[in-house]
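Consider a protein example.
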Amino acid sequence: MPDLYDVAAIGNAIVDVIAPADDAFLAANSLDKGAMMLVDEARSAELYGKMAKGVETSGGSAGNTIAGVASFGGKAAYLGKVADDKLGETYIRDMRAIGAHFEPTPLVGGPATAVSMINVTPDAQRTMCTYLGASVRFTDADVTPAVIEGARIVYLEGYLFDAEAARKAFAKAAALARGSGRMLALTLSDGFVVDRHRDGLLGFIETQVDLVFANEVEIKSLFQTDSFEAAMGEIVLRAKMAAVTRSEQGSVVATNAETYAVPAFPVEKVVDTTGAGDQYAAGFMFGLARGRSLPDCARLGSLAAAEVISHYGPRPQVSLQTLAEEKGLL
């Protein structure tokens, strides 16, 4: 099948509500700083009513990554579940507006479109409370073979491991990708996801995954070690490649034959770290899909991450393609 897309992603289709907060607000509302917590619809409504005025935007980890790929000028597709409601319509419109292929079957008569409330403290840490709503109703029936088989890289969002139906969808996507000779990438998403699903993630990585994205906390949690070097040694025994971010230390890209440490791009002021890992994955996969070297892929990822942490919101506010061209990376 011809290459229709550089990247096709499967993830939780979530509308992000991002607002400034202080540590007192987190404490008063029993929120664990820096964590991602799942909440029910009632708790979601309660927190929404208490949050400061902020920005509302279509998000979700893999959706943000697809927005980054599109901003680089890449061809992108997205698979996710929204409800037949106003926020669902907004999500579909937003994804199509950035040039991504997104043709979902909206959920009728079930939970509402998912919402993530993200409180950002002055130190740029993000504390997320997420109502997954319709997003976890994504099933193997929502996996479109033509999209998976037509993508150079198929990207799976680790957050979906919380839903059994979505894990079955992952298995279908992996089979389609492998059967069509496509690369399968997985992001670990969050340390809490790793803690909940360590055995399942390890099994899936060992049998299906070519490329793993993680941050330092997640990769060490996966192998229950305090040693970053030990964790990197373990991951390349299970996947062909790993790209691991280390905040201001940049990132490390490794295969079983080579390792590259790539510095972070400097940022004048870190405003909001929401979406940093998502955009790193976008730049890295765009470069990989276009045949760039692994260090160049990491540089593109670092550039995208630097752009997104310089403002509120998880998606680029300027053209990443133009930015990369200005930096001599494209």
About this structure: The chain has one domain: 5-13+60-105+136-326. The CA atoms of residues 236 and 256 lie 5 Å apart.
